[in-house]
C-alpha cells in the first residue's frame, strides 16, 4: 500500500482550524478504523487549536502548517506554527490536566498519541499513532 499524505497551511484563526479539521476527517475516513479516526482527529484538532490560540495568539497574519502521513500502519503528524513557542522547563506542567495554565490540549494529545516530541522551541509538535487494520474494522 502506498503512503497517503494530508497537507494544509492555514491562517491562525478558529474558522480556518475548523475547516481544516473537517478536511482532515474526510482524509482519515479513507485510511483508518473508526476508533483510530476519532483518536487522530482529536489529537490533531487539539494540536491545531494550541498552535492557533496559544502559539500564534489567533493572529491571522501567522500561519499553521499541518502534515500527516499514513504509512505501514502508522500515522505520523507534524503541526507547526509561527508563534513564540514555549520554554521546555514548563512542559511537565502543560501536560498536567489539573493545571489551568495549559488547559487540556497537551494532556489529550499525549493520551491519544503513541509518541510525541517538540522542536523549534515548542513551535513544532510531532506525533505518531498506530492504526489497526482496515477502514471497516
CATH homologous superfamily (4th level) name: Histidine kinase-like ATPase, C-terminal domain
Percentage of β-strand residues: 25-35%
Strand order of the largest sheet: 1-2-3-5-4
CATH architecture: 2-Layer Sandwich
Amount of helix: 25-40%
Helix/strand order: EHHEEHHEE
Number of helices: 4
pLDDT below 50 for ≥5 consecutive residues: which ranges?
none
Coarse morphology: globular
CATH topology description: Heat Shock Protein 90
Report the count of strand segments: 5
What is the domain total for the residues?
1
Q: What separation lies between the terminal Cα atoms?
A: 17 Å
Strand pairing plus helix content: what structural class? alpha+beta
**Mean pLDDT, as a whole number?**
86
Radius of gyration computed on alpha carbons:
14 Å
The CATH C-level name is: Alpha Beta
Q: What can be said about the biggest beta sheet? A: 5 strands, antiparallel
Give me the secondary-structure topology:
Blueprint: E1 4-11, H1 14-29, H2 34-55, E2 63-71, E3 74-81, H3 91-94, H4 105-112, E4 115-119, E5 124-130
Antiparallel strand pairs: 1-2, 2-3, 3-5, 4-5
Helix pairs in contact: 1-2, 2-4
Describe the structure in brief.
This protein has 137 residues and is an alpha+beta fold. 36% of the residues lie in helices and 27% in strands. A hairpin with a 2-residue loop joins strand 2 and strand 3.
